[in-house]
Amino acid sequence: MFKPLDPLLHSELRLATISLLISVEEAEFPYIKEQTGATAGNLSVQIDKLSAAGYIEVEKTFKGRRPCTICRITSAGLRAFEDYVEALRSYLEVKS
Amino acid sequence: MFKPLDPLLHSELRLATISLLISVEEAEFPYIKEQTGATAGNLSVQIDKLSAAGYIEVEKTFKGRRPCTICRITSAGLRAFEDYVEALRSYLEVKS
DNA sequence: TAAATAAGTTTATTTTATAAACCAAATTAT
DNA sequence: ATAATTTGGTTTATAAAATAAACTTATTTA
Questions:
Q1: Are A89 and B17 in contact (CB under 8 A)?
Q2: A15 Cβ under 8 Å from any chain B Cβ
Q3: Which of A22, A63, A85, B3 makes the best surface tag, with the fewest CB within 10 Å?
C-alpha cells in the first residue's frame, strides 16, 4: 500500500539539496546554502550524509586560496531520487 | 525557491495516516495500523499529534465493550495536506 | 593592525521517531 | 473455573535525527 520512503531523502534539507543538484551539473557550497536557506553547519552535516550514502560526490578544492566545496549528484543519487518520488506517489495519489 | 514542508505531515507514518483518511470518510485504529504496517505504540503517538494539530478528529467509543478509536480527517487537515503536496512540488519538479 | 567576513567543520542540544513495556478487558483453551 | 492469549490501545524509555551554536583558519576591509 504505502512504499517506504528512503530516510536519507525524506529530509527537507537533503531533499532540497538533491533537487538542486539534479538540475545543475554541479554546485558550490555557498550557492546551495543560499538557495536552500540553510545554515552552514546544517548543510555541512547533510552534505556529509548524502556523500556517505554515495548520493553525491564532493570535491574539496580551492578558489585562489579560499576553500571551495563542489557537489555533484551521482547516478546512485539520481536513481534514489527517482525511487523516492515514485514511492511518494503512493502517499499522494487519490485512491479510488 | 523551496517552500517549507509542514513538519507535521513530513513524517512517513503521519503522511500515510492522513493519506488514508482522505479517501475513506473514517477509519478505525486497527485498520490504520494494518494498512500502514505501524506498531500500535507508534501509531498512537502519531495520531495524538495529528489530533493535537487539529488535522484529524478522534472519537473514542466502544464496540460492544471493547474500546474503538475512530479517526476522521478535518477540513484543516485536508487543507494542510493540499498545501504540503503543493510545497513538495517545489522539490520534485524538474527545473528548466 | 584590528575588526569583520568567508567558508566550512565539530560539537552540543533539542526534537522526533520508534520501540518496548505496560494496562484493562475479553476471549479461548485446559 | 481459571490460566493463558489476544485485542485495543496508552505511557514511558531509547535511539536517531535535525538543527544550532561554537569554533577554526584564512582573507579582506577599515
A1: no
A2: yes
A3: A63
